[in-house]
Specification:
The complex is a heterodimer of chains A (about 300) and B (about 280). Chain A has about 300 residues and is an alpha/beta fold. Chain A folds into two domains: about 5-220, 3-Layer(aba) Sandwich (Rossmann fold); about 230-290, YebC, transcriptional regulation domain (Alpha-Beta Plaits), CATH 3.30.70.980. Helices cover about 35% and strands about 25% of the residues of chain A. The longest helix of chain A has 16 residues, at about 170-185. Chain A is globular, with a radius of gyration of 22 Å. Chain B is an all-alpha fold and about 280 residues long. Chain B has one domain (about 25-280). Chain B is about 70% helix and about 0% strand. Chain B contains eleven helices and no strands. The longest helix of chain B is centred in the last third of the chain and has 30 residues, at about 250-280. Classes of the chains: A alpha/beta (about 300), B mainly alpha (about 280). The interface of A and B includes residues 67, 93, 102 and 149 of A.
Chain lengths: ~300, ~280
């Protein structure tokens, strides 16, 4: 088995008394697509900055490509592509110039950068906007340009921090498609997200993070198998009647989760549970049977929803 | 991040590749940043050109020709134009460096956080600062050289060493710029500090550093302002170089020392602030 490209052991980051990352362990194999899933403030971005060799860890061990970021920050960063949560494209430069200038930071020859820039603008579907001002691009275009910029050095590992936050559904799907292509080409992807569908789409394996700790680890399907049922029945009785109804639902399904606005019934067969509920004489205002998702895994592990 | 390099041969191919790829940015990263800053000048090239050619002409006409007519006896044995010209050169350098080290630093950390983008590549915080100062030095030397040329056309340079005043003025600007950047690199919230800096820093320096009249004209209790002012040291150095102003050698050495120390300390502090701020 090839050596992991990232190894973190008891990785910790503290800001004064606040512990942002609390002794986490994980490994990422070459070519793998690895995700950190968790709510805002879980410590995902801090972990990404440590992996990106720009934030010094407080304690623990971290190796990127076999090198310690404390000693080899610039060397490690020469092999990374970084798409930060907040776009930091240079607004004083035009679209193509952003790539040309960024390529120089890696010490690449100008002719190589120019060639790659054109190919990447094509890849990012921005070939017709080369001379545009960055400010004039849409959110999705800026994101794609940031990804193109992160690929200028042909990185071994691409780090993406909340890559589609703030984008409309169409822009998200275009971005996912581009990332999927990179994954097919063998680029190691490490991404953070608080969108379960994004994690399911893009990650081979992920860790669920909350309050700086890893709560669970596995492939999206394995996590759902382990921590949730096959299906989920969502029933609503009205916000003032949910708690009362939940009392009567005890014994229905494998497990119940009572949320302020609805009750989740975890079961292998949602339709059958709905029938049992109706037989009890209860009439939900709305009902929905769906597949279990990572959202349910997160709810099970933390008792909280991913997006609060 | 630190740029400490532990020389050893890693046993992994990908680690060896990383060390090889990191080597050029480690050596030349500062120059790559300077290249970026020069490229970014396209956006304000018009202003920069006006500042370089327009300002000297306006100031020299207003002060060297207009105001000079009120001071026909000159100052310290030379014409008023000769007296004021080195001060204008040093002030022009200060204007350029104050501009480049104020808003662009706030911009790079906050409004358009390109410094974080640079630091995500192999570039270190210290290299960003070095690169900025390489660009600022080039821009300042060009601005001051144009100023010097126009002053020479006005006949205000009599010493054969007069052209060296370009470097005295540039050093003045860089020393002040480094001091300013050591402060602006710590600003996390814009609460009008830039306007305060201009009002209570740059403007008083411009007025009370022996620019328009000898420092000795000020009441004795105000003269120490001049002694600590890098603009006064730079201006006096310029006067020694452009028309051979008579002063003891130790004082000339003090001017040089003052500017060098201020620049070195300012640069060191700025690099430190950048490194810390990027490592969050």
């Amino acid at each position: 088995m090839p050596a992991p490209v990232i190894t973190a052991q008891k990785l910790t980051k503290k800001y004064g008394d606040f512990t942002a990352v609390d002794g986490i362990d994980f490994e990422v194999a070459p070519g793998e697509s690895f995700g950190l899933l968790g709510p805002n403030g879980a410590g995902k971005s801090t972990t990404m900055r440590m992996v990106g060799a720009v934030s010094t860890r407080t304690s623990g061990d971290l190796q990127i490509l076999g090198l310690d970021p404390n000693d080899h920050g610039p060397d490690i960063r020469s092999q990374l592509g970084v798409v930060p949560q907040q776009d930091n494209l240079d607004q004083e430069l035009r679209v193509r110039d952003n790539l040309l200038v960024y390529g120089r930071y890696f010490g690449l020859p100008r002719s190589v950068i120019a060639e790659r820039a054109d190919a990447l603008l094509e890849f990012a579907q921005l070939a017709d906007r080369t001379k545009a001002k960055v400010d004039d691009l849409s959110g999705g275009m800026k994101r794609r340009l940031t990804i193109a910029r992160a690929l200028i050095n042909e990185p071994r590992i691409l780090l993406l921090d909340e890559p589609t936050t703030g984008l409309d559904p169409q822009a998200r799907h275009i971005l996912w498609d581009r990332l999927f292509r990179l994954k097919e080409q063998g680029t190691t992807l490490v991404l953070t997200t608080h969108y379960m569908d994004e994690a399911e789409q893009l990650c081979d394996r992920l860790v669920v993070v909350d309050k700086g700790r890893i709560m669970a680890e596995g492939s999206p399907a394995a996590l759902i198998r382990e921590y949730s049922s096959k299906e989920v029945l969502e029933v609503r009785f009205g916000s003032d009647k949910n708690a009362e109804a939940a009392e009567k639902l005890k014994g229905i399904g494998e497990r119940l989760e009572v949320l302020p606005d609805r009750i989740l019934v975890y079961s292998a067969n949602g339709e059958a549970e709905l029938e049992r509920i109706t037989h009890l004489g209860l009439e939900p205002i709305t009902s929905l049977v769906r597949r279990s998702s990572l959202e349910d895994v997160f709810l099970r592990l933390t008792g909280r929803s991913l997006i609060e | 991040m630190t740029s400490t390099h532990t020389p050893r041969t890693p046993d992994r191919e990908d680690a060896r590749r990383a060390l090889a790829a990191g080597s050029a940015p480690r050596r030349f990263g500062s120059w790559y940043i300077a290249e970026h800053r020069i490229r970014a000048m396209k956006g304000y090239a018009g202003d920069a050109i006006f500042q370089s050619f327009g300002n000297p002409l306006i100031y020299l006409f207003a002060l060297g020709v207009g105001l000079a007519s009120l001071v026909p006896q000159g100052v310290g044995g030379v014409s008023y134009l000769q007296f004021v010209a080195p001060a204008l050169m040093a002030s022009a350098a200060m204007t350029v460096t104050a501009n480049e080290t104020s808003y662009p630093i706030l911009l790079g950390f906050k409004w358009n956080p390109i410094f974080f983008g640079m630091n995500a590549s192999p570039i270190t915080g210290a290299q960003i600062v070095n690169g900025m100062f390489i660009h600022i030095a080039l821009r300042t030397v060009v601005t001051v050289a144009i100023y010097c040329g126009i002053i020479a056309l006005f006949g205000a340079i009599t010493s054969p060493l007069g052209w060296l005043a370009i470097f005295a003025a540039a050093a003045t600007g860089l020393a002040i710029g480094a001091a300013i950047s050591s402060y602006t690199s710590t600003i996390t919230e814009d609460k009008g500090q830039m306007a305060m800096l201009q009002r209570f820093g740059i403007t008083p320096l411009f007025l009370f550093s022996g620019t328009f009249f000898p420092l000795e004209q000020l009441p004795p209790f105000l003269q120490p302002i001049g002694w600590i002012s890098p603009l006064w040291h730079g201006t006096e150095l310029g006067r020694v170089l452009t028309y051979g102003m008579d002063e003891p050698a130790w004082l000339t050495a003090t001017h040089v020392g003052h500017l060098v120390v201020l620049f070195a300390v300012g640069l060191w502090a700025t690099r430190r602030h950048f490194t810390r701020r990027l490592d969050k």
